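Blinded run. Sample ID left blank on purpose so nobody reads anything into the name before looking at the predicted structure. Input follows.
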Amino acid sequence: MSGGEALGPQGPEGTGSRTGDIPSLKEIEQLLNTGRPSCNHVDEVWPNLFLGDLVTAHNRFVLWKMGVTHVLNAAHGTVYSHGGHDFYGATIEYYGVPAHDLPSFDISQFFFSAAQFIHKALNTPGAKILVHCAVGVSRSASLVLAYLMINHHLPLVEAIKTVKEHRWISPNRGFLKHLRNLDVQLRQKKDC
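Blinded prediction complete.
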């Protein structure tokens, strides 16, 4: 963390006092640093919603054994990430998000489309979805958190706690800013 970065409600987002009880970035990072890092390739973090890494995503036999019917790849198009309809065939519905795990990358542009894909998958009888990126802790975790916030109306802190009950996650600082802004937007919309 560089010394010049502003934290909390008075940060560069200019959200000011409208944030109410929304925690600062520092408080969110402290929450994320609790618990012990998991070393699983994949974990079920919500009923029929799995958060995982490339090892799981690239093993079609494991996906078949898990009953996965949908894959959201949050690292689509990156060097190490296979995916797409050519890779999975007709048995798995695929959605690729070309996100880069950089604090400067605007992952928020994919929050609603990813949440819609996850929601549609989980409303399909018998469906299971794997959301993954390279390691399964930053890009994919951010999209799962956004889904829980958008579709299940969980505040960011509750979404993090829900996922952390099953898997250690660590979205980068830029993604946390976008998630915090989403939290503010959703709360303001709810208050209208």
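Unblinding after everyone has recorded impressions. Confidence is low (pLDDT under 50) at residues 1-18.
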